[in-house]
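Example record

Each entry pairs one chain with its bound ligand, PRP.
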Amino acid sequence: MLTIALPKGRIGDDSLQIFEKIFAKPFRFEERKLILEMENFRFLRVRSQDVPTYVYHQAADLGVVGLDVLEEKGLDLVRLLDLGFGRCSVSIGIRAEEELRFDKPSYKVATKMENITRRYFSKRAIPVEIIKLYGSIELAPLVGLADMIVDIVETGETMRQNGLKPALDIMESSAYLIANKNSFYAKKEEILRLRHQIQEVL
Ligand code: PRP
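Structure tokens for the complex follow.
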């Protein structure tokens, strides 16, 4: 039996589709249910940012989550496979009419990805004040809360519709299959078999 934490939304849905292909039967959470048991698997339906937490604390053996979330959490987890879907980038966004430059003494950067943002700017010795937000990040430069944002860009539509543009990509992301180290050693054969089955249907 393997327990797998899946995020709500697209990445979770695409992950279940992989299992549907492997086992040729529907894998779907009933409405509002948070656990799904099928074949030899138990799926947990959690918030994307919580997937690494469930896996790290061994409440789940495996998880599927965006590399952006993994990097932001910074937990020591085994990255088993890049699933190739859920592609997006983490980018610096600025007002469409501006140019990206770093000649002021400091910049205010709004983001929900504090750690990725801090690492990026401190590596380059660019002084920034990070303003942590939980959503609607694109609003911040429009009302003077921040000079720029660091946020997820998938189609770029949200930035465009709010008069912003992606000025620089910090990292590329896609969905990864992850495991905690204990599960990986204790259930190695089962996990590697699943990884192989997933690779075959991708
Ligand atoms: C992300 C991100 C942007 C949007 C980008 O939010 O914060 O707002 O998607 O997508 P686009 O480039 O295709 O317009 P998400 O939908 O993940 O919601 P969240 O803020 O709850 O994480």
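Helices lie at 10-23, 51-56, 67-73, 114-123, 157-161, 181-186, 188-201.
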